[in-house]
Design brief:
The protein has 14 helices and 17 strands. By secondary structure, it is α/β, with parallel strands linked by helices. Strands 4-12-11-10-7-5-6 form a 7-stranded mixed β-sheet. Strands 1-2-3-15 form a 4-stranded mixed β-sheet. Strands 13-14-17-16 form a 4-stranded antiparallel β-sheet. Helix 12 runs parallel beside helix 14 and helix 13 crosses helix 14. The chain binds 4'-deoxy-4'-aminopyridoxal-5'-phosphate. The site of 4'-deoxy-4'-aminopyridoxal-5'-phosphate has 15 residues, from helix 6.
Length: 426
């Protein structure tokens, strides 16, 4: 791996960013270099320095940067003057994506979901899911969980935990009630019972909810993993009280935890599923809202968006499914790589009493008793050509999201860098 000996700061970036780009910019502050090209698990900056990417576009690049097979399909489509912008008109690219999604993802899993194209981002998928749940049930309130993250638009923000992000709304965020996520009380209390109790208590003050929205692993919330038993009990509770269950698989779907959907392991079947980030396979904007057919009560155009039919993303998504999801090989490889990463993290944690390992599949993390150390580890990693970010309410977790296609050699190299960063910050 190439080592950058100079410690870069924001002052090293071209002036135009500080002069012209809003103060809201964030990742360029954490990784203050100007990236120029990317291939597989590697990013290269304009000085020619290479960085190993254990961030993968926050989970949007599960198949790596500029994946050759997917790129070829995209280039051929563009060169043939295939439709690029299509709103929700019927196009060949959309038909082919739906056929492949049905054939390779839904049918083998016995899932009958209808597919909504809500708009290009995860937040638009979440907004559409919340709107639909309210329309179906005629109820307003939504149950969310502590440390949840669902996006930055007002509906999605109302079900998001982070207080800094919530404050950005500037208005009250309403019609959402947070409940304790699995293990919120450190395993001392069955976290789930609180929800069950207030739901059934007519004196609790809880309005009957339209839906529960949950991540099976909270990525932004600090790599918190819900147990399968907890998810099963939640699904059962929702079913028995006629509350819709929405699984937000925007970050954990598309193979991040091994199987295509993160909820497959628990055997639950959500009423509504949101997908985005890696669904296009290439980092192109695309999102899906999957809906049980009997809940598909939308009127035509009731939820829409100019960029909900971005055809290049349909082309790359279809090619991704054909390349990686024909059988279970890719999922098995992902699980094996996840175990490899986890074993190394367990070793690091065993050597350091203030650190613990957490995660599932290829989303793994290290939690630090001193939150500031997680940030220092990431900075140290960047100085040694590894891109990795923090998550959690106080940024106390170093979150590893390498592309699932990362080679074992690169995984080991990145973990070596991380281990050194741990030692240097101890
Ligand atoms: N849901 C989850 C679980 C997410 O992780 C994210 C993005 N981090 C979103 C929704 C929002 O997606 P987007 O940023 O594309 O709006």
């Amino acid at each position: 791996m190439t080592i950058a000996f100079d410690r870069l700061t924001e002052a090293d970036l071209p002036d135009v960013f500080a002069r012209r780009e809003s103060e809201v910019r964030s990742y360029c502050r954490a990784w203050p270099t100007t990236f120029e090209s990317a291939s597989g698990s590697w990013l290269t900056d304009d000085r020619g320095v290479r960085y190993l990417d254990f961030f993968a576009g926050a989970g949007s690049l599960n198949y790596g940067h500029n994946n050759p097979a997917i790129k070829t399909a995209l280039c051929e489509y563009l060169l043939s003057d295939g439709v690029v912008h299509g709103l929700d008109m019927a196009t060949v690219a959309k038909a082919q994506f739906l056929e492949e999604f049905e054939r390779l993802i839904l049918a083998p899993r016995g899932l009958g979901y209808k597919v909504q194209f809500p708009g290009p981002t995860g937040a638009t998928a979440v907004e559409s899911a919340l709107k639909l749940a309210r329309k179906v049930t005629g109820r307003e309130s939504i149950i969310s969980f502590t440390n949840a993250f669902h996006g930055m638009t007002l509906g999605a923000l109302a079900v998001t935990g982070n207080s800094m992000k919530r404050a950005g709304a500037g208005i009250p965020l309403v019609h959402a009630t947070p409940m304790p996520y699995d293990n919120y009380f450190g395993g001392v209390t069955e976290d789930f019972h609180w929800f069950e109790r207030v739901l059934d208590d007519s004196g609790s003050g809880l309005n009957r909810p339209a839906a529960v929205i949950v991540e099976t692993v909270q990525g932004e919330g600090g790599v918190n993993v819900a147990r399968s038993e907890w998810l099963q009990a939640l699904a059962q509770l929702c079913r028995s009280r006629e509350i819709l269950l929405i699984v937000d698989d925007v970050q954990m779907g598309c193979g991040r935890t091994g199987q295509f959907f993160s909820f497959e392991k628990s055997g639950i079947v959500p009423d509504i599923v949101t997908l985005s980030k890696s669904i296009s396979g290439y980092g192109l904007p695309m999102a899906l809202t999957l809906i049980k057919p009997e809940l598909d009560v939308w009127s035509p155009g009731e939820h829409n968006g100019t960029f909900r039919g971005y055809n290049p993303a349909f082309v790359t998504a279809a090619e991704t499914l054909r390349t990686y999801w024909r059988d279970t090989t890719f999922a098995a490889e992902t699980l094996a790589k996840g175990e490899r990463v986890r074993a190394r993290l367990e070793d690091m944690a065993a050597a350091d009493p203030d650190v613990s390992a957490r995660g599932r599949g290829m989303v793994q993390g290290l939690k630090f008793a001193d939150p500031s150390r997680a940030g220092r580890v990431c900075r140290e990693a960047f100085d040694h050509n590894l891109i990795v970010e923090t998550s959690g309410p106080t940024d106390e977790v170093v979150k590893l999201l390498p592309p699932l296609t990362t080679s074992v050699e690169d995984l080991d190299a990145g973990l070596d860098t991380l281990a050194t960063a741990m030692l240097r910050t101890a």
